[in-house]
Specification:
270 residues, alpha+beta, OB fold (Dihydrolipoamide Acetyltransferase, E2P), de novo design (two linked rop proteins), 2 domains, five-stranded mixed β-barrel, three-stranded antiparallel beta sheet, 7 helices, 40% helix, globular
C-alpha cells in the first residue's frame, strides 16, 4: 500500500511537471508580429523553405515558411521575393534557430521593380549583398528605415537609376559601421582599402586606389540619392567603382564572397 501511494504521488508530480514544462515552452515562444525585408530564400524540404529576413524588431532572423502557391494559403511562397517588404507573425523565441511563419502580407508593394529587368537585376544583386552583410540579430531602426526608404525610392524612379546600386552600397557603409575615414582627404592621396582611409604614400599591399580614381571615389562616397543623377558614370567607371566597393566589402566583412549576381549585373550594363 505504501509503495502504491509513493507511485501515485510520483505520477501526480510527473503529470504536474509535464504540464508546467509544456506551458513554459508554449509561452516562451510567443506569437510575435514582425515587419521585415526579405534577403533570400533557401530550400529546406519539398514543402518548406528557409527565409532570411531583416526585421525592424530583431534585426536579421531566419524563419521556416511553407512552399505554397495556393491563393487560399496565408503564407504563399510568391511573397518571399528578394527585397519584398512584409508584415508577418511567427512563433519566435530568441536563441531558437528557426521559427515558423504563420501569417504574412506585404506592408508595401513595389510597382516597377518586379516588372523592369534592369531594376529587378539590381534588386537581386543588392539582396545578395545584404544577405552577406547584415548578420546582427539586434534591432537597428536607422538601418531598417534606410533600407525601406531607399528601396521605395528606387521603385518610384522612372529614370536615372543606373547608378542606384553604387550609391546604395556607398551609403550602406555608414549603417554597418565600416565607412572609410576620408574626412581629411587631400587630392593626390591614395585610398587604402585595407586600412579604410586615405594615405599619402602608396601602400605596400595591393588593396588601394590610385590618386586619380581616389578623388572621384571619395566624391562618390559623399553622393546621396538626391544628387545621384549628377554622377553620370560611363560603363567603364561604373564597373570600376563597383569593383572597388565589392573589394572593400570583402576586406571588411568576414567571409564575404563574390556575389553570384555580380556577373549578371555586369552583363546588363556592358
Amino acid at each position: 500500500m505504501q509503495r502504491y501511494n509513493l507511485f501515485l504521488n510520483w505520477q501526480i508530480f510527473s503529470d504536474f511537471f509535464y504540464s508546467f514544462v509544456s506551458e513554459f515552452l508554449f509561452f516562451s515562444a510567443m506569437i510575435e508580429k514582425f515587419d521585415g525585408i526579405v534577403l533570400r530564400t533557401l530550400k529546406y524540404s519539398d514543402s518548406l523553405m528557409i527565409v532570411d529576413i531583416y526585421t525592424r524588431q530583431c534585426g536579421r532572423l531566419s524563419f521556416l515558411a511553407p512552399v505554397s502557391r495556393s491563393k487560399r494559403s496565408k503564407v504563399r511562397s510568391v511573397l518571399f521575393q528578394p527585397l519584398s517588404m512584409l508584415s508577418f507573425t511567427a512563433s519566435y523565441k530568441r536563441g531558437r534557430q528557426l521559427s515558423r511563419i504563420s501569417d504574412v502580407q506585404p506592408y508595401s508593394m513595389y510597382s516597377s521593380i518586379p516588372f523592369n529587368i534592369v531594376k529587378s537585376s539590381i534588386a537581386l544583386f543588392l539582396a545578395e549583398v545584404l544577405a552577406y552583410s547584415l548578420r546582427e540579430e539586434e534591432a537597428n531602426d536607422a538601418l531598417f528605415d534606410f533600407l525601406d526608404t531607399s528601396f521605395m525610392l528606387f521603385d518610384n524612379l522612372e529614370k536615372g537609376y543606373a547608378d542606384f546600386h553604387i550609391v546604395f552600397l556607398s551609403q550602406l557603409l555608414r549603417y554597418i559601421g565600416i565607412y572609410p575615414n576620408i574626412d581629411e582627404f587631400v587630392p593626390g592621396e591614395y585610398l587604402d582599402l585595407l586600412q579604410g582611409g586615405t594615405v599619402q604614400e602608396q601602400p605596400l599591399h595591393a588593396h588601394f586606389v590610385m590618386p586619380d580614381k581616389a578623388h572621384f571615389f571619395v566624391e562618390l562616397l559623399g553622393t546621396g540619392f538626391d544628387s545621384m543623377h549628377e554622377l553620370s558614370l560611363n560603363r567603364e567607371l561604373r564597373g570600376e567603382f563597383l569593383a572597388i566597393l565589392i573589394e572593400y566589402y570583402r576586406l571588411h566583412i568576414p567571409d564575404f564572397p563574390k556575389p553570384k549576381s555580380l556577373d549578371i549585373l555586369r552583363e546588363l550594363f556592358d
